[in-house]
Design goal:
372 residues, 3-stranded mixed β-sheet, 11 strands
Length: 372
């Protein structure tokens, strides 16, 4: 399934290793930090267990283990992609990063939530298969001690990957599967996401209990610094994702209540050949934004600030088409309410003073973005 097209060795997102089924496999720079964390945590145990065999063996086992973990994560992601492909949705990107991996899919037709659930659970299922294979090889084959020790480590790593990723909380695979199953039964996507988000907060609470509160409350000792760092690295992306989905933060609540229709300012349309004096008159009559068109094609916009920035100009000779400013695609939205509308407004702010709001192909008005 490897594409015959050779990709660039690097990209803006990381290093491209190759393509599988046309989808690039990209290693993000942050994955190197994950590798260093794994090596640093694994080295003391390997040294204490295999130190008598020499530092060459110790370092070799650490390197092989880190590479084995990377391969396990990659196979996990490829399982998502293969399952999605078989069900009718092809992946467009595989990425390894600080928190493991991510598979990005393209558009699909006739997609159903239960297919999302199967696609999500394919990753943990693959790790269970690797757990069984590594365990069998470590127990049954006559291997050098270093290789056997590496397989023993990968056995438990894959079991941990399978169990952790199957937990029912976003953004874990189990959380996506839970959200999809709730949507399949109820027909309500938002309900499924909220259920998985609450599950994610439960996962965060479990992580905090096991690595922070349990040592303090039950074992009467300080949590280890390395464990605290892992708690932050693992719990933070889960908590932030779930917090955002549930809208528990002040900004999220405000975004959920946003209705762009309440903020609309009037717009008018003129032909590109209309003189600037006509545009000035329209703005003086109450329109806040003038759309300049050439037939059915939108050429750009003009507002009072833009006219003032032109300085001295023969407004009777100059035309609207000559002075209008192109409107970026990201400054147009059909999202009217909620977080999607807030995201559209935020995206437009860096590009335009106005966000044009359309519904059903009809321009409803424009919302000022706050940009200067």
């Amino acid at each position: 399934m490897t594409s015959t097209q050779r990709p660039a060795r690097t990209s803006a997102r990381g290093w491209v290793l190759g393509t599988v089924g046309g989808a690039p496999v990209v290693v993000a720079p942050t994955s190197l930090l994950l590798g260093l964390l794994l090596a640093g945590s694994w080295l003391p145990l390997v040294q204490s267990s295999l130190g008598a065999l020499g530092w060459g063996t110790v370092i070799g086992v650490v390197v092989l283990t880190v590479m084995g973990v990377a391969v396990s994560v990659l196979l996990h992601e490829l399982a998502h992609g293969l399952t999605g492909t078989l069900l009718g949705r092809r992946p467009v990107l595989y990425q390894l990063h600080l928190w493991g991996g991510r598979t990005t899919f393209g558009a699909a037709t006739g997609w159903r939530p239960w297919k999302d659930a199967l696609t999500s659970l394919a990753g943990p299922a693959t790790n269970l298969v690797l757990w069984a294979l590594c365990g069998w090889a470590q127990r049954s084959l006559d291997l050098p001690l270093g290789i056997s020790f590496t397989l023993w480590a990968l056995t438990w790593v894959n079991l941990a990957l399978a169990v952790f990723n199957a937990l029912p909380g976003l953004p874990l695979d189990g959380g996506h599967a839970l959200a999809a199953l709730v949507e399949q039964v109820s027909g309500r996507r938002r309900l499924g996401l909220r259920a998985a988000a609450w599950g994610g907060l439960g996962v965060v609470a479990l992580i905090a209990w096991y690595w922070v509160l349990r040592p303090l409350v039950l074992l009467h000792r300080q949590p280890e610094a390395f464990n605290l760092m892992l708690v932050v690295l693992v719990a933070w992306p889960i908590a932030s994702t779930c917090w955002r989905v549930l809208g528990l933060g002040r900004r999220s609540r405000a975004a959920a209540r946003l209705d762009l229709r309440r903020l609309l300012q009037p717009v008018a349309t003129v032909n590109a050949a209309a003189p600037v004096s006509r545009v000035r008159a329209i703005l003086s009559d109450g329109a806040r934004l003038v759309l300049v068109s050439d037939g059915v094609r939108l050429l750009g916009t003009v507002d009072a600030v833009g006219l003032d920035e032109l300085g001295l100009l023969d407004e009777h000779a100059a035309t609207a088409g000559q002075v209008c400013t192109a409107l970026p695609a990201r400054a147009v939205t059909s999202q009217l309410t909620g977080e999607q509308a807030a995201a559209a407004l935020q995206a437009a702010r860096s590009l335009s003073r106005w966000l044009l709001v359309v519904e059903g192909g009809t321009v409803l008005g424009a919302v000022p973005t706050g940009a200067r």
